[in-house]
């Protein structure tokens, strides 16, 4: 955990949007093989809008914190946000991230892209 | 918020007795021990006393004690320079897969220079396989380097048996005793240990100072050139206050080893018992009995040890994942991997290393918070089946 980023610390201590999402119609998954970290994102999309987002994470404190912030960020947004979701977008929201935690950004983007691919209209 | 420090294998606070002993050497008695005037002689007397204390505590002669900047330097010095100084005898070194990186990395460097290094396997408890050691000894073997006790899982090796084997084959035996000094009794002469290293800050002494004890007759080149300090073996103005502090710390640690170990063992077993009773899918890593009295290394299934360490930190509890030296890295523990743990248990490992002042009340708080934190992280984990 990057001790200098208060937003990350708060998100890790009190993560939002944790758990399975019943009725999810877009589920994404990302694995970091080197670290054996696993992230699952569950989205409920209705009328081209993300109405609910949740996650489950097996991994570092940064992965949990970033997933909490990112899922909060996309709730209520049009589904198109998933097409343009890249590292800079989440970085702007989260703030400075320590180099050893940057892999979490890649995992998050991968899980969201995977969710979009798996979206059942 | 209450703060509880359970990371004493990483470092320890300086005890008041050690600090009191050091203070004059940071203030009034500040001389350079190489100076011939009274200030210099005063500082030199402090170093001489510390050298005597180390020799007395570890069963060697004072002139076999060399002060360094810490165990990392001592390990680098001994492995590399012993190999270089004895290369005509042979170029084979035997060590283990669970050594500290300050032993493994110099060995890797020697491999690049043409030496052959055997890294011994360990069993599921972290013990070196003696049969494998016997099998790999050859006429070319010049050194056996096996740590006394492991810094991550606390397993204490069968040092006497390994030392005997080295002796029977005319091979030097070196042991990194950083975690063991003050935890178990060590006597270099009686145990036939040719060389031994440790640090001051693991035994309530200061940081930045350590020891390499080398028995007389062991051929080894100096570590640094450019001065006559440490009998010309390690040049550079001596860290007088640090050395004085280390001397006092080792004296106290070895004097109180029986009393402290008994108390720590009781606390350690209380913590292990309670964790096993109150949390499911846990595993004690390391040997169940032959382990350091202050070490509890547990794997918690379905969660990441780093996350658990960070969450416990928010409750004021300081523990660590693996060793302090490697917890900043994301690579999995080489020690737990060598012991054959599953990937998930390697990832879920946390080390609690107790200090002698720890109380049952503190441990009860730790156990209660640990249960909360593990449950919280398991709710987040996709590896947990139930919601």
Q: Care to describe what's here?
A:
The complex is a heterodimer of chains A (121) and B (387). In chain A, helix 1 packs across helix 2 (61-74) and helix 2 packs across helix 4. Chain A is 37% helix and 22% strand. Chain A is α+β, with helices and mostly antiparallel strands. A three-stranded antiparallel sheet of chain A has the order 1-2-3. Chain A starts with 5 loop residues before the first helix and ends with a helix. Chain A has helices at 6-13, 61-74, 87-94, 103-117; strands at 26-32, 37-46, 49-58. In chain A, a hairpin with a 2-residue loop joins strand 2 and strand 3 (49-58). Chain A has one domain (6-117): Sufe protein. Chain: A (Alpha-Beta Complex). Chain A is globular. In chain B, helix 7 links the parallel strand 6 (172-176) and strand 7 (195-199). Helices cover 41% and strands 14% of the residues of chain B. By secondary structure, chain B is an alpha/beta fold. The model of chain B is unreliable at 324-329 (pLDDT under 50). Chain B contains 13 helices and twelve strands. In chain B, the strands form three sheets. Chain B has a seven-stranded mixed sheet, with helices on both faces. Chain B has a three-stranded antiparallel sheet with strand order 9-10-12. The two termini of chain B are 30 Å apart. The longest helix of chain B has 22 residues, at 257-278. Chain B folds into two domains: 4-12 and 257-380, Aspartate Aminotransferase, domain 1 (Alpha-Beta Complex), CATH 3.90.1150.10; 16-255, 3-Layer(aba) Sandwich (Aspartate Aminotransferase, domain 2), CATH 3.40.640. The relative contact order of chain B is 0.16.
